[in-house]
Amino acid sequence: MKELLSIPRPSGTWIKIISDGVKKGQHIYHILKTHNLDVSSSTVYRHIRKGYLSIAPIDLARAVKFKEKRKSKLPSIPKEAKKGRSYEDFLNYLALKQLNSWLEMDTVMGRMGGESPTHLQSLSVTLSSLDYWIIKPP
Q1: What is the pTM of this model?
Q2: DSSP string for residues in 44-90
Q3: Residue 49: which residues within 8 A CB-CB, separation 6 or more?
Q4: N or C: which end of the chain has fewer CB within 10 A?
Q5: Which pLDDT tens digits describe the chain residue by residue (138 residues)?
Q6: Buried (b) or exposed (e) across 9-42, using 16+ Cβ within 10 A?
Q7: For residue 63, what are the CA distances in angstroms to 42, 45, 55, 59, 83?
């Protein structure tokens, strides 16, 4: 079984240096460069958000202005809905019905309401092991 890696909390003198610098009104980048700290600014901001340092995001000059990115989570598809939809099931269906030709159609739609909406339709016809593709541009 794969073990989960745990990220240790930051320790060392760089925490005190960064906390003191931010309390004086200095920017993170300025603190890292003047003290030659071997830590990336994104790591420092991440540790501040997680509460590992004695300062909060409200103490930073510009971090309050930026909103966190929304993470869109697609709804999960139940396992019951996925039954019978694998490639092996498709091959078994072809063998069971003794089909040697079939028709497939896909539609891909881009972002709705965007500047340039994308709409692509493709049609795949398989006749006696030869594939024919028909692609309809927008």
Answers
A1: 0.44
A2: HHHHHHHT-SSS-GGGSSSGGGSPPPP---PPPPPHHHHTT-SHHHH
A3: 57
A4: N
A5: 444 444 455 667 788 888 888 888 888 889 999 988 888 888 888 888 888 888 888 888 776 666 777 777 878 888 888 888 888 998 898 899 988 887 777 766 666 666 666 666 666 666 656 666 666 655
A6: ebeeebbebbbebbeeeeebeebbeeeebebeee
A7: 12, 9, 12, 8, 47
